[in-house]
Design goal:
Blueprint (H helix, E strand, L loop, with lengths): L15 E5 L3 E8 L2 E8 L2 E5 L15 E5 L3 E4 L5 H8 L19 H14 L10 H9 L58 E7 L8 E2 L9 E3 L2 E3 L3 E4 L15 E4 L8 E2 L11 H4 L2 H13 L6
Helix pairs in contact: 2-5
Amino acid sequence: MSLILPDPFPPPWACEWADDAEWGLSATLSFRGVRQRFRWIQPGTFLMGSPPDELRRYDNETLHEVTFSRGYWLANTACTQALWQAVMGENPSFFQDDPAQPVEQVSWNDVETFLKRLNVLVPGLDAWLPSEAQWEYACRAGTAMPFSFGENVTPEQVNYDGNYPYAGAEKGLCRKTTVAVGSLPPNPWGLYEMHGNVWEWCADWYGPYPVGPQSDPAGPTDGSLVLRGGLLGGRRVLRGGSWGSFAQYCRSACRYGIPPNGASHNTGFRLAPGQRPAGEASRHAAWQAQAERASQAGGSDADG
């Protein structure tokens, strides 16, 4: 299949771009001295979820075909504390040994606020969270096994609780903290720490997968569940597992959901430029005035 290039390319927010033989196109944002690289994810088709014989799978991982008709940009790492600090002026993270560690202790609502502010400060970025399907497609990177690294993982590949390995593997290192982004080997598409380190928020509400093949799925319209005791409020999707997770929760297909105001020292996210929902800017025009005041106080925003 021929490669489909982003339009426009290079994107207006990029200070530099590259096309390397192994991982393809990348573009880099520089904001107040903090850099974030993005990878161009080509459109394609994959099987989302897990097969019935995958060890430690859950019933919410129903296998189904998903096709992406369009490519998309995705950060090659989780958002760092340095970038969050540059945008928000504060750092909510529990682990603060290195500004290159992923920001954590952020809720879905916190991330929404961050993205609205960043989109005003960097015109044309239009960043949001990846959909759950986009996240898994990128995590798998053309693979169909429990992990993008194969049938199993080690703590040298993934930051998880090594006391609880997968599929009978040997116990290993338990770091009890996040590591700086880009510290561990990337998946076949050049994306780092898609497994482990921090759970990553997705744009979607959490809910059952639809039946049958899907094209460019956007997820359910809400995350409410009807239980015996009544209605449970909506939950947003988290993916990838974390530094404190058993290895089974770091599988490509594993899904989790918590309320959008929930946060802990293992919840983070990664940026997806060009994903901002239609009409979001007009609904939140107040951010423009706030961003202009912040810009006047802090000087230049986007570099390059």
